[in-house]
């Protein structure tokens, strides 16, 4: 079907003449209020420029305007509303305003925008405060913002602006590096503090005999590891257990030494309370079995020298001076010693692993 131009007295038709044909602009509703308002205004301006009355919606929907009615041969973009081609204005079939006036206005506005752009570039230079010109000088330069700048000068202004931003970026990088160093030092300090607070793995006690003595009552780290090597073969370790053999031993030693509660130990080692109770009873039995030979009772002649030894054991192992559960006094058979007796034996053996406080000389 041939396409005809909708402008009054225009005989251009497609495909008889080599003209492009453009639809009436539609109202754009899905790109924001500004776009909707501008597209609606443009549509109304097109209809006013075509200046035909009695057109139905069907005619308007199928209306075309050929390229002969635009200065450049096609409509301008939506947001270029100062362009003469924003609305068809050439040979519209009736008297219109002087086209030359519209073109002159458009050119004047375009030049004004370019001037503003150049002024902004010059003002950026002024804000930087200094500018190295073509000769390489470092003196401060004042620019007449109303003067015309060449492309080379504009390029140098842009380079100067970017150089200023680069310098600011370098300053910011240096500041961030300094902050990073401070954060690293703070991290190392916190890591050291956490290491001092942790008491669950062999590495937490290495090179810190005071920590060993506080948590276990033993003299040093060497004694602690010797005790572990002595007990480890008898300590069970299930495949799915969350506690290592060393941790099981430490749970028992810390409970004997500091009388830490089941709840406290469960939080420290990240296991349930029932697990802590089972581990404590298991390791007490193992330690009682292996360490019993370390308990040497004095002869009658030495009793007077060691009369205060029981007080030293109670001081070293706080659990002996605390209230114990009734279960620690009950045995399943007559041949078995109660848990309390085993705890006393273990504490005495551990005391004997340390230098004696009683002289036998």
UniProtKB/TrEMBL annotation:
Coiled-coil regions listed: 152-193
Residue ranges of every copy of the THAP-type domain listed in the record: 1-91
Domain of life: Eukaryota
One Pfam family named in its UniProt record: HTH_Tnp_4
InterPro entries: THAP_Znf, Transposase_HTH_dom
Keywords: Coiled coil, DNA-binding, Metal-binding, Zinc, Zinc-finger
Keyword Ligase listed: no
Protein known as: Uncharacterized protein LOC106814506
